[in-house]
User: Which sequence fits this backbone?
């Protein structure tokens, strides 16, 4: 009888080998990149003149966090320093995911940038549960995040 592996086990086994990306042009002056971070966490990256927009779906948990932090941390170092992280389609965030968000916010600040996080009710509730809403810049939509970047 074949064994079924949970996505967490698959992520753990392959987390260092799952990341790949495909570049494509989305609109004039915008480079979009498909990010397949792990089995349970996927997304896209759009690079504009003064910011990067990451749209993620899936789970930001202990199993996807190392790859998430490594890949996004590298993208912050190489691209525009203002980051919009759209987590509105994220199904779950645990304490490891929150820790990664804090580290990315600190990294952006160190590079004279900002991290704007677009949330949904689940993500907002988790952030507020551990009282990080004053440290992390939570936004209701991408447009609000853009306004925050323009005013910084």
Assistant:
């Amino acid at each position: 009888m074949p064994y079924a592996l949970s996505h967490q086990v698959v992520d753990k086994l392959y987390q260092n080998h799952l990341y790949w990306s495909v570049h494509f042009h989305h609109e004039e002056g915008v480079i979009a990149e498909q990010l397949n971070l792990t089995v349970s966490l996927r997304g896209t990256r759009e690079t504009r003149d003064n910011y990067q927009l990451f749209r993620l779906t899936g789970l930001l948990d202990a199993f996807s966090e190392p790859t998430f932090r490594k890949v996004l941390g590298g993208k912050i170092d190489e691209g525009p320093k203002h980051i919009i992280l759209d987590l509105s389609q994220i199904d779950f965030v645990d304490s490891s995911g929150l820790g990664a968000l804090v580290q990315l916010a600190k990294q952006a600040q160190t590079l004279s940038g900002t991290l704007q996080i677009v949330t949904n009710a689940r993500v907002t509730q988790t952030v507020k549960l551990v009282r990080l809403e004053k440290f992390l810049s939570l936004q209701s939509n991408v447009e609000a995040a853009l306004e925050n970047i323009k005013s910084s």
